[in-house]
C-alpha cells in the first residue's frame, strides 16, 4: 500500500508520509538477514517502533478500493527483470530462479473484493498471462463480492474462524499478546484500530432494541431506549474516530447481534430478514460505491 512502485508519478499524494515511510524502510533493513539481530529486548522495542510508525500511513491511505493505476504499475513492475534478478528499485526481490534475467516476485492485494471494475478487468488480463515466477495473493473476507472471471483463475484457500480454545494460543504465539486481555481475534484487531469492542457491542444492542422495539422481546429486563440518545452518541463517536472504520465495525456488530437474537428466538425471522437487507445495503453503499460515512 505504501510501496513507491505503485505511487510512481503520484508521489505528491504521499509526500507528507515519505519521511515516515523512509524511516520504516531503514528500520526494516536493519532487521534483514544481512545484519545480526539485536538481543530480545532491543528487538522487541524496534518492532514496537516499526508497528507504531506503520499506523500513520495505514490510516492516511485508504484500503477501501484499489485504483486501476496501482494495478497497472504493479503489473509493469512484475514484468520488469534484470540480469541479476532485481526489481525496479535495484533491490533483490527474491531468490533468482530459472537463470539470469529471472526473479521471484510476490504481490499481495488486500481487500481484493473492493477493486473497481476497471481494476478487476486490468487484473484479469494479468491473471490470464502471468509473468514467470510471479505470485499474486488476493485477500478478501467477501469472496462472493469478487467477479467470477477473476475467481476462476485463482486457487482458493479458506481460513475458518478460530474457536475460543484456539484464539488464546494464536494471540500468544503470533501476536505476543496475553490472551486474557482479549476475548477473540476480532476484539484484538478492533483495539488495534483504536475502537472499543465493548462500546460497539453496547451501542449495537441499544440500536437494535430501539429500531425493533415492537417486534423484539426485552433482553435482561432492559427498558425502552431513546433513539435520539443513540444517534447523539453515534455522532459523538463519529467526531472522535475514523468515520468509515467506526461505521464498518458498527455494522458488522449489528449483523453479529441480529444473528445471535435469531438463534435465541428473540426476533421475528421476517423482521430480521428485512433489517438484515437494510444493514447490508448501507454496508454495500460505503464498501462498493465509496459513499461518505457521514
From TrEMBL:
Pfam families: DNA_pol3_delta2 (PF13177). InterPro entries: P-loop_NTPase. This is DNA polymerase III gamma subunit domain-containing protein. The lineage of its organism: unclassified sequences, metagenomes, ecological metagenomes.
